[in-house]
Amino acid sequence: MTHPSDTRAYFFKIDTTIKKIRNALQKQFTDAGFDLTVDQWVIIDHLYRNPGISQNTISEMTTKDAPTVTRIIDLLSQKGLTERRMTDTDRRKFLVYLTKVGEAKYSEVLPVVSAMRRKGWGDLSDDDYQQFVRIMDSIYSNISE
Known about the structure:
The chain is mainly alpha-helical. It has helices at residues 4-7, 10-32, 38-49, 55-62, 66-78, 100-121, 126-144, and strands at 82-86, 94-98. It has 7 helices and 2 strands; from the N terminus they run αααααββαα.
């Protein structure tokens, strides 16, 4: 007996949907004059919600490899949006924070991101969202085993 997922390219559908969202969001950033990529926004968003976390933690939270996170944080630092601070307990380690300029950028960009999320979700219900999360969590868990 054939499993239903054998004939359905659901990974392709997930991937193309993610690319569509990223491209649309990047266009919104460009049109609004934000000097920011979607990947940079993801890091800013995590730093806003979790100030003073390590680059390793950012890598884990965003599922981006360490060199990519380092490169993004370097770019954000050059733009004056983030800063690294050494820890008090270990001078070899540092934590990453948004600067005041970075916090202002977060506040400026968030409405554009929120509008894109609302547009993408359209008229789907809260129950639809719960089902979506359940399904995505299940796929994630199945692949992680």
